[in-house]
Specification:
alpha+beta; Aspartate Aminotransferase, domain 1; 6-stranded antiparallel sheet; 6 helices; globular
């Protein structure tokens, strides 16, 4: 698996939206964050550090995702998975290598992350996601304008 193929898979899941945040990180959300969506996966696109640098001694995760409380403890026992920096308290795990799972296992893990996150969305957000696509798009555009206006003030 690699970042591009994983991105294509994630965007095929229901109600998934991506943003670029915190430098070169692709963040995947169930529902647009403007309507209360929640993130469920993050792919780090930063280049690995040079071997001689101090940062290279501590491997940086390639991908982090919501594992949920049931799978979290089991997953961090694997060699290539660690508690996700900054997100472990929310039961996220991070992979240090793409070969942590096979392609089908990656898909299973990330589909489950999306479903776990979808189940935790507030009722108001679920109502918007149940609307027809055109109406959803209109509401998201309105909400983004409101949020932008609030930031200007």
């Amino acid at each position: 698996m690699d970042a591009e193929r994983l991105r294509a898979f994630l965007l095929s899941l229901p109600h998934v939206v991506e943003t670029m945040q915190w430098g070169a990180n692709l963040v995947f959300w169930v529902g647009d964050k403007a309507i209360g969506g929640k993130m469920f996966a993050l792919i780090n696109l930063d280049e690995p550090a040079h071997p001689e640098s101090a940062a290279a001694r501590k491997p940086s995760p390639l991908i982090a995702y919501a594992a949920g409380p049931t799978r979290f403890s089991e997953l961090i026992e694997q060699d290539s998975l660690i508690p996700a920096p900054y997100l472990a308290r929310a039961h996220w795990v991070a992979a240090l290598r793409w070969d942590a799972f096979t392609d089908s296992e990656w898909k299973r893990e990330l589909r489950a992350a999306s479903e776990i996150t979808h189940a935790r969305l507030p009722p108001k957000t679920l109502k918007v996601l149940a609307l027809p696509a055109a109406e959803q798009k209109r509401l998201i555009a309105v909400r983004r304008k409101l949020l932008a206006a609030q930031k200007i003030r």
